[in-house]
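Usage

Read records sequentially. Each one opens with the input sequence:
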Amino acid sequence: MPRKYTKKPAQNRFMAKVFVPNDPDACWEWKAAKRNDGYGQFSLNRKPIGAHIVSYQFFCGEISKGMCVCHKCDNRSCVNPKHLFLGTHKENMADMVRKKRQSDRKGSKNSRAILKEDDILKIRKLFETKLTQTEIGKMFGVSYEVIGMIKRGRNWSHVQ
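and closes with the structure output:
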């Protein structure tokens, strides 16, 4: 017969992996396994789940479908239920923008970028010639699709 899930032993196991400081309003730091993105990870019913999500479930209640567990404190390893709130993905992204936590890695600031801002200006001048997107792409070591996205303003639109 399969073992039935009970909240208390799992909650005790969870709290054994948390550093709770004397200040109840401070972040509760996750001390155990973390994902590459810095969020704590906990195994519940033999499935890995975000530690902040488990904390919310243990201390605040169920999470409705389509909702995310968000951080007020912006500390990914924090599991203090006072610092957690529910929001949609859209609300979480708006919170990120409002707090200026989004990455500003446009153009050559993006580590995977092949082109530079000067290249974009040269490519735009080449649109006035009879060269094809494939030919322009070969000149700069990128595909014709990349050139097409530049032409349509889908990529590198920040370059004037």
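Summary fields computed downstream for this record:
- The helical segments are 7-15, 51-59, 89-98, 117-126, 133-140, 144-151.
- The chain has six helices and six strands.
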